[in-house]
Specification:
The protein is an alpha/beta fold. The protein is 40% helix and 21% strand.
Length: 227
């Protein structure tokens, strides 16, 4: 999934980026409200981690503007302002969650995972499609009870397909959600990783779960799909 970290403390921003990337997220950063505003309005982020005390445009102003303009990314406020009034204001303006500093990275990650699941109307941390299980907390997958060894990028792609199971996702959608602004890979790398996933997820199993819709994109077989 792709995350925007809007934080002017560069040391904290670097730490958050490193921690999120280690969890398999694609991460963009913004150090002030102007940069955060532009990025959030031009990229469909799965979630935004938003500091309230940003230069140029504060977090409350950005929240109000984003929701008015139809930005529907999940927004987690991360702030040293711990007063009840600030929390209520942030949530009333459209934030999905509020976490105060100092914080533990594990709690931030757990809250982000919950927000992403909520966006796809999934409550359980373990997704099941036929005999495939994807544990979004441990970031592991099994099929027919057998562990599937996936690289971080392969896991991210499989998870994205699973969140959208039964629906076609285009190469553009995959690129926008799995690769950050600094990635220099070419677009055909998506086809390469689909082949890798097919080998690991489908080979030796029936039915095949990763489907191609020619001229459209790819999809993970939904429970209602027929061969």
């Amino acid at each position: 999934m792709r995350i925007l970290v809007a934080e002017d403390d560069r040391r904290l921003s670097r730490s958050l980026r490193r921690g999120l990337e280690e969890e398999g997220y694609a991460v963009d950063v913004a150090s002030d409200g102007e940069e955060a505003g532009f990025k959030a309005e031009t990229t469909a982020y799965d979630a935004i981690v938003l500091d309230l005390m940003l230069p140029k445009h504060d977090g409350f102003s950005l929240l109000r503007r984003w929701r008015a303009r139809g930005v529907n990314s999940h927004i987690l406020i991360l702030s040293a302002r711990s007063g009840v009034d600030d929390k209520v204001k942030g949530l009333n303006l459209g934030a999905d969650d509020y976490l105060t500093k100092p914080f533990e990275l594990e709690e931030l990650l757990a809250r982000l995972r919950a927000l992403v699941r909520r966006g796809h109307q999934i409550k359980s941390p373990v997704m099941k499609i036929y005999d495939l299980e994807i544990d979004t907390t441990a970031r592991i997958a099994r099929r027919g009870g057998q562990d599937i060894r996936l690289t971080p990028r392969e896991y991210r792609l499989l998870e994205f397909l699973a969140f959208n199971r039964g629906r076609v996702v285009t190469r553009t959608m995959i690129w926008e959600h799995l690769y950050d602004e600094n990635d220099e890979s070419t677009s055909n790398v998506i086809d390469v990783f689909i082949r890798y996933l097919r080998t690991k997820v489908d080979k030796g199993f029936d039915p095949p779960l990763i489907l191609t819709r020619w001229g459209e994109g790819y999809m993970l077989r939904g429970n209602e799909e027929v061969a």
